[in-house]
Specification:
Rossmann fold, alpha/beta, 9-stranded mixed sheet, GMP Synthetase, Chain A, domain 3
Length: about 525
């Protein structure tokens, strides 16, 4: 399989570059810029993309690619900082810009050079692109020709077609760059990269790999009902059938109808060997009297481990544990910027202790979330699971602000079901990243009929996002908000007020706790 390397210099868009290349049916993977050049050259990449990054080439300790990379005959595309690093190392003139450039700019095309071929200018030979840079290449290195410029950037694109070295100051991977995919497609053509990456071929390849890895052994899959663990379960079942056992732990803080849906989908529709462990009373007992969000999370996580261990011991010898690890989880742990201070524990398993002595199998570790959804679709999972919104491991416990009780859970569960129903009816379930209800620890005065009330408050939260690292509050139609509010107040006993959260992340978070 042909593959492209995205060499990561700490760019916020590195994952997006890799995803865009994969959307063009060519497999791509992200490698930290600290990777030895010998390993890069030995890996058989058809081309290498140098990502952007926050550094200046003149910073002390600035990360720079090995110059031998440009002498190896492999096509290289530098994006933003990647272009500056290429220009700097090959003898071009790179200077701090007189005016930093962030946002839209108009690229004046001066030649295709094999990289910008097919870009269609709109007005006066210009194409709208997206910039985000401080330094600027003033003069390209010897052998390069200028392909384009902007009012603030004399060399916005350059090429040495003979050596197959290219650079763009703008970001072709973001949607704000018109025809950005044309740039990436042209580079892949230069690389002679075959478009042989698809989810259908992934399924066939991974099924064979699972069978070879597992042999006749049994596999345990921790099933949460979310898209990642659900796709893992169905993929494993396709590969090894009865050798798979799925364990679904009901922690008592799941959403309306979730338990019934998971059991019906996997036990009935897919005939998976599913164990449903109802531990809801245990979890609620552990949450009694707890109001601190972090304590809630830890108690739920610890109790999950205890339940999982108990249920796993009942099953006898099972050497393999399947997890829904995705490619962003893998990237985070090897990023040039270093592992995060708190890399998230795998959401399906909740951070199982190492002494459980399972061997891990992670069939989705090469995939992004959108690719996982496509695998689920091809495997026949229902849309309500494929497009299920992200749901926190501690569940509704962190959407009940303050103490968690069965009564307060019932309130937020009913309100949340109304939110899901109305967003789905409005056809917006794929446009919002998450939409949910939060029960606040306050009461307000209201009037229902001729009576004064003093009842609970529900906060609505709806956000748009691509990866949850940043998020903006969703501009839901007023009519939709009115319907949601009216239904919650009329149908959920004990609620007399609904408010809408209009904060973005950062500075807020998506969840309230």
């Amino acid at each position: 399989m042909d593959k492209i390397c995205v060499l990561d210099f700490g760019a916020q868009y590195a994952q997006l570059i890799a995803r865009r290349v994969r959307e063009l049916s060519v497999y791509s993977e992200i490698v930290p810029c600290t990777e030895p050049v010998e390993k890069l050259l030995a890996a058989g990449y058809k081309g290498i993309i140098l990502s952007g990054g926050p550094s200046s080439v003149y910073d002390d300790g600035a990360p720079l690619p090995d110059k031998r990379l440009f002498e190896a005959g492999i096509p290289v595309l530098g994006i933003c900082y990647g272009m500056q690093a290429m220009g700097f190392l090959l003898g071009g003139e790179v200077v701090p810009a007189e005016r930093r450039e962030y946002g839209p700019a108009d690229l004046l095309l001066e030649g295709g050079g094999g990289l910008l071929d097919g870009m269609r200018p709109s007005v006066a030979g210009r194409v709208r692109v997206w910039m985000s840079h401080g330094d600027t290449v003033m003069k390209p290195p010897r052998g390069f020709v200028r392909l384009g410029s902007t009012d603030n950037c004399p060399v916005a694109a350059m090429a040495d077609a003979d050596r197959r070295l290219y650079g763009v100051q703008f970001h072709p991977e973001v949607v704000h760059t018109a025809q950005g995919k044309t740039v990436l497609r042209n580079f892949l053509t230069v690389c002679d990269a075959k478009g042989d990456w698809s989810m259908a071929t992934f399924i066939d390849t991974e099924v064979a790999a699972i069978r070879k890895t597992v042999g006749r052994d049994r596999v345990l899959c921790a099933l949460s009902g979310g898209v990642d663990s659900s796709v893992v379960a169905v993929l494993l079942h396709k590969a090894i059938g009865e050798q798979l056992t799925c364990l679904f732990v009901d922690n008592g803080v799941l959403r309306h109808g979730e338990v019934e849906s998971v059991v019906a989908t996997f036990r009935d529709a897919f005939e998976v060997n599913l164990i449903h462990a109802d531990a809801s009373k245990r979890f609620l007992a552990r949450l009694h009297g707890v109001t601190d969000p972090e304590t809630k999370r830890k108690r739920i996580g610890n109790e999950f481990i205890a339940v999982f261990e108990e249920e796993a011991r009942k099953l006898g010898e099972i050497p393999w544990l399947a997890q829904g690890t995705l490619y962003p989880d893998v990237i985070e742990s090897v990023s040039f910027k270093g592992p995060s201070a708190t890399i998230k524990t795998h959401h399906n398993v909740g951070g199982l202790p190492p002494d459980m002595k399972f061997k891990l199998i992670e069939p989705l570790r090469e995939l992004f979330k959108d690719e996982v959804r496509e695998v689920g679709r091809l495997l026949g999972l229902p849309p309500e699971i494929i497009w299920r919104q992200p749901f926190p491991g501690p569940g509704l416990a962190i959407r009940v602000l303050g103490e968690v009780s069965e009564e307060r859970l019932a309130v937020v569960r009913e309100a949340d079901a109304i939110v899901q129903d109305e967003v789905r009816r409005a056809g917006l379930e794929r446009e919002v990243w998450q939409a949910f209800a939060v029960l606040l620890p306050v009461r307000t005065v209201g009037v229902m009929g001729d009576f004064r009330t003093y009842a609970e408050v529900i906060a609505l939260r709806a956000v748009t996002s691509q990866d949850a690292m940043t998020a903006d509050w969703a501009r839901l139609p007023y009519e939709l908000l009115a319907r949601i509010s009216s239904r919650i107040i009329n149908e959920v006993k004990g609620v007399n007020r609904v408010v809408y959260d209009i904060s973005s992340k950062p500075p807020s978070t998506i969840e309230w706790e």
